[in-house]
Structures are given as structure tokens and as C-alpha cells.
Amino acid sequence: MGSFHGVLLVGLFFLGMLVSSLCQDEDSDNFSAVYIVTLREAPAVHYDAELRRSSINGVRHGGASERLNIHKPRFRNISRTDRRYSSYIARVHDSLLRRVFRGEKYLKLYSYHYLINGFAVFVTQDQVDKLSRRREVANVVLDFSVRTATTHTPRFLGLPQGAWVQGGGYESAGEGVVIGFIDTGIDPTHSSFDDHTSERPYPVPAHFSGICEVTPDFPSGSCNRKLIAARHFASSAITRGVFNSSQDYASPFDGEGHGTHTASIAAGNHGIRVVVAGHHFGNASGMAPRSHIAVYKALYKSFGGFAADVVAAIDQAAQDGVDIISLSITPNRRPPGIATFFNPIDMALLSAVKAGIFVVQAAGNTGPSPKSMSSFSPWIFTVGSSSHDRNYSNSIMLGNNVTITGVGLAPGTDTMYTLISATHALNNGTTVSDDMYVGECQDSSNFNWDLVRGNLLICSYSIRFVLGISTIHKSLETAKNLSAIGVVFTMDAFVIGFQLNPTPMKLPGIIIPSPEDSKVLLKYYNLSLERDIMTKRITKFGALATICGGLKANYSTSAPKIMYYSARGPDPEDNFLDDADIMKPNLVAPGNSIWAAWSSVGQDSIEFQGEHFAMMSGTSMAAPHVAGLAALVRQKFPNFSPSAIASALSTTASLYDRNGGPIMAQRAYAFPDQNQSPATPFDMGSGFVNATAALNPGLIFDTSYDNYMSFLCGINGSAPVVLNYTGESCWTYNSTINGGDLNLPSITIAKLNRSRTVLRTVRNVAANETYSVGWSAPFGVSLKVSPLHFSIASGETQVLSVFVNATSNSTTASYGRIGLFGHLGHVVNIPLSVIVKITYNTTANG
User: Fold this and answer.
1) Catalytic residue among 93, 190, 258, 625
2) Are 700 and 648 in contact, with CB atoms under 8 Å apart?
3) How far apart are CA 136 and CA 39, in angstroms?
4) φ/ψ (deg, to 5) at 511
């Protein structure tokens, strides 16, 4: 890392010198600026468009065993998507600039070769005039500023400069791909799902046949070319008598907010203004903003959902022809009496995968305990939750110059104001003995308006806020009714170490999450009180404070980190098999503090009631990030099987945070940032999703439906269950395999007894390339991979033999990695997890 930073600093120094000299050489009438120059020759995307359209419209995605046919148009014997072509175009641009400027100073910033054929260059106005007169030049435009487009995670994931660029920009990212959401429905009135946000109309995906259900809550016209299907499934709930028509909508309409939120994360429109509590927090975008949304509502506010309804929704989605299914739902517990994988939801999803549908599921929010995973089948892509680099914090500065940090999406105060505790502002008819929770400020009638007016009101934040009995919303209403300047929430000592999400506040406000910091504020407050010597009554409130606003985001280089609540692998214990030799989760994605669309009547969070956007956290938010990114992969590789998409996302995942250090995992629910250590594959799977790299994976691991069936048939006593779910007999599969032998982009061995050889097969989906193999062995294991070097042509396969030998016993998993390094720059990452359990045979002497 040191040498990289040294080169970077030297490069920045010379860049600064060149820019400085360009500016200093020009007079005030001929200053330098950045211009975007486009050339008349068509860019690469024009040559690929016809091929891409024929692939998407003419080929229905086949099963996992379908061979990949990667065809590339040629131009002067160089593919338009080949790196050599981009180098060729860059040389063409450089040649033009040298001819035009003939020794003059200029600085080329970029060469564009795929979306536009052109470049960005730092030049003077005189030089612009020279460029404009060239016959090769089509247009010269002065560079202009743009605003952030964000739930912020598109920028954190590098989409504007990376994955979106490769697909034609956000205007076409995910176009033609249909994502099906099994969730709480959708609010069709939200601008994130409008089909008129772009000058270019949405196309109708020819392979999709879903319908839009019409009800009084979901009237005709709710669907459009963006939201192309919506249905609801509640027969099981109605039959059980738990469907509450006063709370639950018997329609696709989202009465909770969760489904609207997840759909917009994956596929919401680009550039939608996020306004909450009257404050603007940037612009929102889904990961694949041009993809289509199909909604299959199977969860409800008052009771959750039932497997029968979920399976019906999955079945309908598959019939309709969705390309991707996003499940931000997990079972409450493992179905009793059957093996882990043989539950109706997972088996329905296996059939969906057979039909060529990529399935994404949230890992669950039951972490950080080991084996807490709620999504465990190898044909499902399981996503854990990480942080991203944006966070919000505010602070309060006390009159004694002590500053305390806190949370709260709130404006600040313009000067110092008097602090007054709620318990010291009670009206004559209220006492703490009458209501021990009166300090939580839930009812303005308990307080003296004259005392509170114009001051900062101190309220207590207790466990009742965590449980939803008391709310910030009600406290803010109380403060507003009493004409308070703002609200300060001090943390009750019994609420230990909770990681609070930022909460929107229209008034200046702050929540102090630390009980220790809260004691500091209250000590200052109490020492500043003046009391009558005889009566002990307060005669003056002397404590002063000012709140520094929390509306502006901060950015951290330590992101991402694995959130404490994100469920951990490996597979859960099972009565039929101890462990399945399958790594879970598959990877992690942003899931913490995510801005996304919210239903206009959403009840899931009282703090966001009536708002059009909400900030939510959980693996529910991480899964649709990957569903949207998978749409970009599907768009680029329409013939990829579901396992090929999974492989592309997995093998390219990042192992490092933005500071270059290892990704950390929070290990405790209380004080999570004080209890963290480097993440393992059972915390983060293959790593943190890398959207741009996933679009250029180099090699992929493909696993067929038949392989999954051979795995299921290998579970002792499973044959009758397999027959019941699939209609297929295990006799038709000549051999069975265990989880470690599935052709997955990872290797997990839960019980290594002495030694074992594991085979993996890779397919080249890029240009001809030569790879070298390297590895780091887990503790207690020696490792050998062969071949050490191999050359592989485009479309060809290569078998890798991994020999794992135990050198010492271990009761816990240890971790290693295998890396395949291509000479064209591809890096394929294969995580390895092993528990060594050597058994020794003993015989009696005699």
C-alpha cells in the first residue's frame, strides 16, 4: 500500500503542476476549463446494440446447465468490449490532440469509448476553437456540475462511474430485466415508480406476461411500463381468520412501507428528490433504475405472512416470466420434522432456478450468533448487511464548552438557549409519582407552557422507545405544542449500547445515545440550577446549550463493516445432517441506514408516517441492492444461468474497506463498534459486493439443477421427500454428491478427516487468458491446487483440483483463500472454510 500511495502523491503533484501552468499561461480572457468533446465516429455501444437486443428479446433465459455462447462483434480484429479496443480508441484521441495543438499545453482527463466516442480535456478557449474546427469533432461542451444521485449507495458502490457506464448510463441500467418482489406490496403513486421520468419511454419486455390486479385500493392505471405487474396473495391468512381488513389491504397496495422501500432500492427511478420532515437529503436511485418491477404481495402488517401464500407468489412470478426474484423475507424458524432444505419455499425457489430465475434472499436479522442464518439453500443467493460510508451525526455544545455527539436528522439552533428538563416543567396537576414515564414527553397536557416556551426541552429516552411504546414523533409534537425551541433526548441508563438509527425531526433536536454522555449533560444541567434556600424550589434554569444540526452527511473510510444484526453462517444445525458444507451468506451489501421510497400510508415506522421516503436498516435492505445489481449482470450477460450470475457477483467481491484495511464485523448487539474483529467468510461470504467488477468476472462457476438434485438426493433418507416436491426419483441420478462437491465459488468442509480432494470447474466468459493460482491455507491445513498455471480460451472450461490435508485438530472453523490471477487483470476469489476433525481407529491388542 505504501508504494501505491507514493505513486499517487507523485502523480497528483505533477497533475497540479500541469494544471497550474495551464492556468498561469493564460490571460483572464482565455482561461482554461474542462470540455467534453465527442467525435463523429460511432462509439462501441452502437455496434453492440443490435446483438444485445437480439440476445435479450430472442432468447428466453435457459436452465443452469445451458451452455454459454458469448459472441462478440469484431472491428479490425478487435472486439468492441475488449480492453485492447479501449486502448486503441485512447490512442486515436491522443493522436488527434497532438495534431491539433502541436506542442501546446493541454491535459486529457478521460477517453470515452463505449457510451460516447470522445474525451474530456482541460484546455483554453482558443484551443476549444481549434478543436471545434476539426472535421472529426462532432461537439464540444463546457463541463457542468451535477448533484449527487443517492440513497447514497449507488455512489458508494461506484455505479455512476463504473457499472452504469458499462451499460449505457443510468438511463438504461437494467433495461429489459424484470425483478419480482415477494414483499408487502407497493405504493404505485410514488414517483420512484413513475414511467414518465425519462424522455425515452420504457420498453415492454416481450418475455413477460404478468397482469396488474385492479381493486378499490389499487385502481386501474396503477401499473405502467415501469411497474408492469402487481398481485396479492392472502388466501392462507384469510382461511386462518387472521387477515384484518381494517389494517391490511386486500390488494397489492403497500400498507406497511417495507415492499415500497425494497422495490425502490433495487429498481427505483433515478434522481428522485428525498424530502423528509421538510429537509432535503439528496436524490434517490435504484441500483438498476431502468429495470421493470413486478410485485407479488404475500406479507401484511398485522400478521406477517404464510408459506402457502409466499409459494403461490413465487409460482406466479415464475409463470409470468420474471428474471430475478427478490425476497426480503425469511422464515420465523426452520420447519420442524424435515431436513433444512426441504421446506416449501426453498423447493419452490429451486424450481424457479431451474426456470432460469436468479433468486436473492435476505440472510436474516438474527446475528451476530453463529449458525443464525435464515436463508441457507445453495441455489439461493443469500445477502448479509453491511454499513456504507455515509452517516449522520449531530452534536450539542453546552454552556460550559463541553460538546457531546448524538444522532438526529434535525436542524440546529442559531444560538445558545436555556435547557429545561421535562420533569421540572410539569404543570400543577402532574407529578412523577402519578406517571413515572412523564419525562418521555409523550403528552403536552402534562407540562407548563410558560416554562417550556422558547427553551430546549430535555426528554428521557427509555426502553419504551425501543419497544415502540413511546415515540420520538410524540415527543416532537409535545415540544411543538409547548413552543419549545428544540428537544434533547438523554439516554436512560437501562438502554445499554443500542445503535440508534437517525430519526427525522422538524424541530432542532438530538438523541444522545450514550448513558455516560447523558450523565455529563444532566450533571451540568443540575449544577446550573438555582434554588430557593428555604423551599428548594428552582428559581432559575441556568444551563445553556446550542444544537449543531444533523442534516449534513459525514463520510467514513472505514466502511463497509458487517452489522451486528446480520445473520451468520454456516448452515444451521439439522437433524438430518450436521452441516451441509455450504458457505453462507454468499456476500454482503449495504443494508444499514438506507434512504428509499416509503408508502404514503406506511405503518412500519411511526417516525416516517406520512413521509415519502424513509431510512431503514436490515438485511431486507441489503438483498434488493444485490437484486438490482444482478439485473445489471443479467442485462450484460442475458444467457448467464442463475449460478453464473451468483458466481460473477461472488468471485469479484471486495475483501477490504475503503481505507484499504480488512472488512470488520461487529460481534455484539451492545456497543457494536467496541466489539468488532476482521470478518470471516461466515460473516461476509465472499466479501462486499463489487458492482463494476461483477460485470467483468473473467471466469465463472456454473452449477446445474441436476447438481442441486444430486446434492439433495445425497442427504440420507431424502429420496421420498425429493419425489414429493419435484416429482423426480433419486434413482434417475446416477451419483449423489455432498455440499462440498457442488460447483460453487467457495469451498466449505465442516468435518475434514485427514484429507480430501475437491474439484471445481471454471468457464471463461472473457477473452483468452492465462491464469496463475495462489492461496493462503486455513490454520491446521495444508493445501495444494493444481494446475498452478493454465491458459483458457474464451468459452472453454478448466477443472481445478484442490487437495486439502489436515495437519492438526480444530474445534472451530479456520479460513483461507484461493486466488486465480489472469494476465489480463481478472482476479477470481474463492473463500475456503475448514473444520478439522480427525478420527483415529483403535483396535484391541490380543
Assistant:
1) 258
2) yes
3) 6
4) -110, 125
Type of residue at 788: L
Vertex 220, ends 216 and 224: CA angle to 5°? 135
Distance (Å, whole) CA 422 – CA 438: 8
Give Cα separations from 813 to 16, 679, 681, 830 (angstroms): 50, 13, 10, 16
Task: Measure the N-to-C terminal CA separation of the chain; round to a whole number of Å.
Answer: 64
Q: Are 741 and 101 in contact (CB under 8 A)?
A: no
Q: What does the alpha-carbon distance between residue 726 and residue 88 come to, in Å, rounded to a whole number?
A: 52
Residue 809 has pLDDT above 70, yes or no: yes
> How far is residue 470's CA from residue 22's CA, in Å, rounded to a whole number?
62
Sequence-distant (≥ 6) Cβ neighbours of residue 241 within 8 angstroms: none
Q: Is 560 helix (H, G, I), strand (E, B) or coil?
A: coil
Q: Rounded to the nearest 5°, which phi and psi values hold at 624? A: -65, -25
Query: What span, in angstroms and rounded, lies between the C-alpha atoms of 632 and 645?
Result: 10
pLDDT of residue 204: 82
> Is 643 one of the annotated active-site residues of the chain?
no
**Distance of alpha carbon 46 from alpha carbon 44, whole angstroms:** 5
| pLDDT tens digits along 648-665 | 999 999 999 988 999 999
Catalytic residue, chosen from 48, 183, 389, 604, is 183
Q: What is the pLDDT of residue 671?
A: 83
Of the candidates 617, 620, 647, 833, the residue annotated as catalytic is 620
Q: Which residue has the higher pLDDT, 91 or 794?
A: 794
Run of H or E including 480 = helix 472-481
Cell of 459: 426528554
Longest dimension (CA), the chain: 105
Helix (H) or strand (E) holding 11, with range, is helix 2-24
pTM higher than 0.85 for the full model? no
pLDDT for the residue numbered 57: 40
The average pLDDT across 166-181 equals 79
Respond yes or no: is residue 604 known to be catalytic: no
C-alpha cell at 232: 396479492
Q: Which three cell numbers stand for residue 712?
A: 439433495
The residue with greater pLDDT, 659 or 323, is: 323
Q: Which domains does the chain have, with CATH numbers?
A: 2-142 (no CATH), 153-385+588-637 (3.40.50.200), 391-555 (3.50.30.30), 742-836 (2.60.40.2310)
pLDDT digits (tens, 9 = 90+) for 791-800: 999 999 999 9
Read off the DSSP letter of residue 502: P
Helix, strand, coil % (nearest 5) of the chain? 25, 25, 45
Q: What percent of the chain has pLDDT over 90?
A: 51
The DSSP 8-state label assigned to residue 409 in this structure reads B
Nearest to 578 by CA among 835, 226, 841, 314: 835
CA atoms within 13 A on the CB side of 225: 14
The number of beta carbons lying within 10 Å of the beta carbon of residue 144 is 7
Q: Assess whether 54 carries a catalytic annotation.
A: no
Summarize the confidence of residues 357-373 as an average pLDDT: 91
Separation of alpha carbons 1 and 93, rounded Å:
32
**pLDDT 10s digits, 338-356:** 567 887 788 888 888 988 9
Report the mean per-residue pLDDT for the chain: 83
CA angle 596, 598, 603 (to 5 degrees): 135
Q: Which amino acid is at 411?
A: P
Contact 186, 293 (CB under 8 A): yes
Neighbouring CB atoms inside 10 A of 143's CB total 13
Q: How many residues does the chain have?
A: 846
pLDDT in tens, 703-719: 998 999 999 988 877 88
Distance of CA 184 to the CA centre of its chain: 19
DSSP string over 339-394 = -TT-SHHHHHHHHHHHTT-EEEEE--S-TTSTT--S---TTSEEEEEE--SEEE-E
pLDDT tens sequence across 566-582: 999 987 666 555 667 89
